Amino acid sequence: MRSSFRDRRGGVIAVTAVIALAAAASLSACSGSASADSSDNTTLTIAMPSPPISMDPSKSGGTNTTFHLPAYGTLLHDQTLGQPPVPSLAESYTWLGSGPQVTLQVKLRSGLMFSDGTALDSAAVKTSIEHFKSGGGSFSSTAAVIASIDTPDPLTVVFNLSKPNTNFLYGLSDGTTTGMGEIISPTALAGNLDALGTTTDGAGPYMLSSTGTVQGSEYHYLPNPHYYDPSGIKYKEVVIKVIADSNTALASLQSGQIDVANGSTDTYQSAQSSGVKAEVYNTNISGLWISDWNGKDAPALADPRVRQAINMAVDRTSIANAATNGLGKATAQTVPVDALGYDASLDSTYSYDQDGAKKLLATAGYANGFTMSVALPGFVPSAVKIGQAIAAELAQVGITVNITVATTFPEYAKDGRSGAFSAVIYPSPGLTGMSNSYSVLYSPAGVINPQAITLPDVDASADAAAAASTDASQAAWAATNKIAVDQAYSVPITSDPTIIFHDTKVNNVAVFGIINPVYITPAS
Amino acid sequence: MLSRQIREHPLLGGKELLVILLRRLAVSIPLLFAVSFLTFLLVSLTPGDAAYTVLGSSATPDQLAALRQQMGLDQPILVQYLNWVTSALQGNLGHSLITGQSVSEAIFQRLGPTLSLVGIATVAIVVIAVPLGLTSAVRGGRLATSIDTISFAGVAVPNFILALFAIPVFAVWLHWLPPSGYVPLASSPNKWALSLVLPVATLAFGAVGIIAKQTRAAAEDVMSSEFVTVQRANGYARQSIIWKHVLKASAVPIIAYLGVVIVTLFSATVLIETIFAIPGLGGLAVQASSQGDLPMLLGVTVVFTLIIVLINIVLDVVYALVNPKVTFR
C-alpha cells in the first residue's frame, strides 16, 4: 500500500537541515562572531558559580562578595597572605596605644562619595558598621567585638574593641569576605532597607545598573560618577554572570564570552591544555571538623588519644589527590601555607599508620571501635568525596561513621547548628589563618562549635596571640596552632584549592582566591 | 483561515467557545490551589528554612527566632498559606524572603527566556518531526529505521550529555554559537536567536525523534484506511493525499503527544537553563527551592501551572478543529 508513495525522492530531512543551517549561518553572519558582545577591553565579564544571597553586604558574604565589591569596595585591601592588609578606601590605619591592640584608628581619604552623591565620612562608616553588626547577616558576629565607634572628625574613625581580635582588621578588608568593610550609604540605610537586597549604594568604582541585570542570573555594573579616583575605573561596564556549570563557564571563557571565571579542579586540566590562564589559591583547608569534644554524641571523642588515632587513620595524601585532582596539598593543620600561624613542622605530626591508630584506640579503651555521626553538604561535591573517603578509612580501624547528607544549604545549616553531630565536613569554612581557624572552629562562638564548648588551652593561647604585637603575632598564633594539632581537636585533610580561570586581557584577577573587580585591570 | 474554521466549527463557533474556555479555566482553579498548597506543604516540611539561608551556620536561636518572626515563618503553616492566598488573589505574589525582590518582577524578568526556549523548541519539533515522520511513513525503509534510532537515542541520551558535546564543538571549536547566556529579543533579534540555538537544539533533540515516530505510526494507520485507497483510485494528486488528508487524519494522536512533550519541555528547562546559564523560570525555581524562598517558589509554581493549563486549553481547541468528533464534557 505504501510502496506507491515511495516513488518520489522527498528529501524532507535534508531540506529541513539545510534550512536550519542556513538560518544559523545567516544569523552568525549578521552578528559577526558569536562572541562579539563579550569581552573587549572596555567591558569586564566575570562568571561566578552561584548568585549572592543578597546585594546587601551585611546580609551576604563568602566568595559571593565578588558581587558587592565593584559597588562598595572595602576600607582595607589584602595583598599578601599572612601580612596585614593595606588601605583602600581608607587612607591609613593604626593601632593606638602601646598595650594590646584594642583601639584602631582609621583615617579616610578625603572626597569619598557614595554613588547617590552622599559623602562617605566617619559618621557614614559608623552608621554602616552598626547596621552590619545588628543586621543579622551570617557574618554579623564578626562585629560583636566592637564595643563602640568614635568619630572625632569627619575623616577619622576610631574602633574601640572589647578585647584584642586579630581578625577584626581582616574583617574590614576584601580577602576574608565578611562584608564589614563594605560601607553602605547612610541615605540608603535611612530609606527602604529591602531595596538594598537588589540595588547598591556604595563608594566603590562601579554601581549596579537595573538595565540588563536579572537578579540571581546576571549583574551589570556601570561606573560610579562620584568615585574618588576616576582613573581607577578601568572598564565602561562590569558584568557578572551566574554560570553554575563549570564546563559551561570554561567554554564561555574559551569562546571569548567572559574574561574571568571561578574554575574547578575538574576542569583545571582541560583549561590548562587549551591555553586558558589558571591560578590556584590554596588558601583554605578542608577536613573533618570535630565539635563533640565533650563526647555528647560519641563519648570516645572526649579522649584526645581517640582524636589522635583518627588523625593517624586517614591517608591524607590519597584523599587530597582524589578530592582535589592533585591540586590540593595534604596537611595536618588548619592553616594554609604562609598564612598567619602556619608551622610547616606540624604537617608531620600524624603519619598514616592504621596499626598505630588501632593500638591507640585500644589504649583508650576503644579496641572495638565506636560510632560517630557526621553531617555534610551533599551540594558540595568535594565534601562528599572527602566524607566517603574518611568514612572508609575509619571503618578500617573500627570506627563507624554515620553520614547525614543535607541537600540544601538551609538544611545543612540547621544540621550544623543542631549540636546533634560529632563533626561536620565542609570545605573551606574560611580558614585563612590561625586567627580565623580559632574563631570558626574552636572559639565558643565558632560556627563549627554549636555546643559552645570551651577549650581552655586553645582559648588562653588565642587570647595571648590576639594581644600580641604585629611582629610577635605569627609566632603566637603558631603556638595556638600547635596546641590544636597536638590535641587533635580537628582532622585537617587537605588544602582546598580555589581556582580562577582568566584570559590574557586581564591582570590582578583575585585576592586570596576572591575575584575582586575593583583591582582587575586590562592587560594592555 | 483558522478564525474561519473556528467560526464555522459546530462546537467552537459563536459563544460556545467562550463557554468551553471558561469551563476549562474554572476546572483549573482547584488545581492551582492544590498545586500551591502541596508546594507550600513540601517546602515547609523540608528541614531548614529561609532564615538559615540568610543567617548561615552561625545563627543563634535568638537570631533565628527574630528573623522567622520578621518573615512570618513563625506562624502555623495553614495561616501562612492563607495569608499568601489572600494576597495572591489581590494580585500580590509577595516578595523574596532572601533578597526582598518582588516575586512578580522576578517572574516577569524570567518569563521571556523560558517561553522563548519552549516556544521555539516546540516549533522546531513540529517543523522537523512531522515532515520527517510523514516522509518515513511514505518511503519507509532506511528512513524509518533512522527515525527509530534517533527516537531511541533521544530518549536514551540525557540532555546534558548532548550539551557537553554541543558546547565544545559549536561554541569553542567552531565559534559559531555562544555557549551560555541569553540576549533579549528587544536588544538584538540576531543575538537572541543565536543564544537560543544550542539550548533549543539540546532541548528538542529527544522530542523530535518521539514525535517523528508517532507521526509515522499515525500516518501509516491512515494510509492503510479505505478513504485513502478510494482517493488514490479516483486519481487524487499524491501530494494532496499526503499533506492534506493523511496529515489531517493523523493529527489527533500527534497533538496528544505534543501536549505531553511540551509539558516535559518545561520540566527539562530547569536543567537546560542551568547548563546554558539562561535566566529563566526553571533556574529561578531551583534557586528558590535551594534557599527555602517560599514566596518565590510558590510564584514560579503557580505560573508554571497556569502555563500548562493554558497549553492544554489551546491543544483542546486545536483537537476540536482537526477532529469534529471531539466533545467537551
TrEMBL record, chain B:
Instruction: Report the superkingdom from the record.
Output: Bacteria
**Which ranges does the record mark as transmembrane?**
21-43, 117-138, 150-172, 192-212, 254-278, 298-322
Residue span(s) of domain ABC transmembrane type-1:
111-319
Kindly state which keywords UniProt assigns to this record, in alphabetical order. Answer: Cell membrane, Membrane, Transmembrane, Transmembrane helix, Transport
Instruction: Specify whether Transferase is a keyword of the entry.
Output: no
Intracellular or extracellular location(s) = Cell membrane
User: Which Pfam families does the record match to this protein?
Assistant: BPD_transp_1, BPD_transp_1_N
Among the GO biological process terms of this entry, one is:
transmembrane transport
Asked whether the UniProt record includes Membrane among its keywords, one would answer: yes
Alphabetized InterPro entries for the sequence: BPD_transp_1_N (IPR045621), MetI-like (IPR000515), MetI-like_sf (IPR035906)
For this record, the Gene Ontology CC terms, alphabetical, are:
plasma membrane
Q: How does it sit in the membrane?
A: Multi-pass membrane protein
Q: Which family does it belong to?
A: Belongs to the binding-protein-dependent transport system permease family.
State what protein this is by name: ABC transporter permease
Taxonomic lineage of the native organism: Bacteria, Bacillati, Actinomycetota, Actinomycetes, Micrococcales
